[in-house]
Design a protein that fits this description.
With about 140 residues, the protein is α+β, with helices and mostly antiparallel strands. The protein contains four helices and eight strands. The strands form four sheets. It has a two-stranded antiparallel sheet. A two-stranded antiparallel ribbon has the order 2-3. The longest helix is centred in the last third of the chain and has 19 residues. It is elongated and about 90 Å long. The protein starts with 8 loop residues before the first helix and ends with a strand. The relative contact order is 0.11.
């Protein structure tokens, strides 16, 4: 815990809880100011203090507010996937009778004889892709 200045029973209990759970409290300056009475009651608690580039306290934007603004800046970069082209199948414009005819022309019994489920799935993928290319209009 940063700045271990435990002044009361509750502070000591919180310090013990954080230590037992391998947590870290990053704020070490007063966050609640009432005249001369100052306390650190607005906290940032984390199990990964190394991802914080900066943390601290800024003065409140409201002169009547006794709580200061607590902030933390994280060092995190988010990966955005690269754009790619997609093929959109226009199913409503398909010809269902042609699909049924193409599927029934294949001797599925002979094709799948002695194969397991994964092998049958792999073996059926190519004919169906060919059907789709013949029957369904596409958009890019």
């Amino acid at each position: 815990m940063v700045g271990r200045d435990i002044e009361n029973l509750e502070g000591a209990a919180l310090d013990e809880l954080l230590e037992i759970n391998n947590l870290f409290q990053l704020i070490d300056e007063p966050t609640n100011v009432r005249g001369e009475c100052m306390s650190c009651i607005d906290l940032i608690i984390t199990d990964q203090p190394n991802i914080f580039v900066e943390s601290g306290v800024h003065p409140s934007l409201d002169d009547h507010c006794q709580h200061q603004t607590v902030y933390g800046k994280l060092n995190i970069s988010i990966h955005h996937p690269s754009p790619y082209k997609r093929t959109m199948w226009d199913y409503p414009k398909s010809n269902n009778s042609t699909i049924r005819e193409l599927i029934s022309d294949i001797d599925w019994q002979s094709r799948f004889a002695g194969l397991g489920l994964n092998e049958m799935t792999e073996l059926s993928r190519a004919p169906f892709l060919q059907f789709y290319l013949q029957i369904f209009p596409t958009k890019s």
